[in-house]
Design a protein that fits this description.
about 180 residues, 6-stranded mixed β-sheet, 2 helices, alpha+beta, Immunoglobulin-like
Length: about 180
């Protein structure tokens, strides 16, 4: 009887421990539509075009019984609106019906920078629900923009290095030669 009570106590304690460590509530609420996959270059060169590709999955967004739904993106750089697909394209949206997905590519013409920079990018996915816009997903990522230095600038520094090295050798020679004359 005593062993049975002890076994029951251990069982209850183990059950409490297991119940407290298991997360039975999902950490992220299910979304009606979301950016399922995206492809971009995390490191790009200034003034060279790049392409961003997004795949959007529509689970439950629909304007009518046929399951039709229209979406658009807003692109942000460092927290500032950079490009609004709806406003900057004469109010065009693209269709992704309920239960389907669509893949879209966006060509980025090139970054006009004079020094290497890091940018925080965010893309918001909006659903046009009978004329009302609803934010349904947002994804963030980082981009490193590098610059290409022309060779003539690099050569100037390499020549300067050679001249400094030759100067150092000459000064070293004169210093060592000067030590030998004093004896």
């Amino acid at each position: 009887m005593k062993n049975r009570g002890f076994s029951l106590l251990i069982l209850v304690v183990l059950e409490c421990i297991l119940m407290s460590t298991l997360n039975l509530v999902p950490s992220v609420m299910a979304k009606d539509a979301y950016v399922e996959r995206m492809a971009y270059n995390a490191k790009v060169r200034a003034k060279i075009p790049d392409t961003w590709i997004f795949t959007v999955q529509n689970i439950d967004c629909a304007e009518n019984s046929d399951g039709e739904a229209w979406f658009f993106f807003k692109f942000f750089l460092d927290g500032q609106l950079w490009w609004d697909e709806y406003d900057f394209t004469s109010y065009r949206t693209w269709q992704c019906n309920k239960g389907n997905n669509v893949t879209l590519g966006y060509k980025i013409e090139g970054w006009n920078v004079i020094e290497p920079v890091f940018r925080d990018a965010r893309v918001d996915l909006y659903w046009s629900n009978n004329g009302e816009f609803q934010l349904v997903d947002s994804v963030s990522f980082n981009i490193a923009i590098t610059i290409v230095a022309p060779l003539q600038h690099i050569r100037v520094f390499s020549y300067l290095t050679v001249y400094l090295f030759i100067g150092f050798l000459l000064l070293s020679y004169y210093y060592v030669s000067g030590l030998g004359l004093e004896e």
